[in-house]
Specification:
With 148 residues, this protein is mainly alpha-helical. The chain is 43% helix and 8% strand.
Length: 148
Amino acid sequence: MTERPEKPHRPLPPASSPASGPLEPSSDEAVHPGSLNDPTEPGISPAPLPGPSGTAGVGTPAGVTRAGMVWAAVVTALVLLVLLIIFILQNQTPARIVFLGLDGTVPLGMALFIAAVAGGILVAVAGAARIIQLRVKTRRLQSRQHPS
């Protein structure tokens, strides 16, 4: 295997904001051949600035996007759904359920699934109640600080 020689590390020039004017060297930043601010040096180009969507220019790896997060969530949900279906299909043993005077038999996998959903609903209701409680408290504190 042939090793390529490493290029010497060069420090990046100070970043300029759009308010500071065009990206041209000032009088105290002379253009030296072979320096980073030499536009004639082949093979060296400044790193692309992020665009309005938060992604870098063409040819650079994009950051995390909403579409990517949604895609990952959908794939994760589908994998969990497939695992849930397999669990329910493998646990078809009838289970006798007695609840508040109701009596019946349900496949074990389905009974466990219903119990998990019921538990999730209870957690969601408790969480929603706490969120509402905190919002009311925040509004009261804000109205005391800024009476109108």
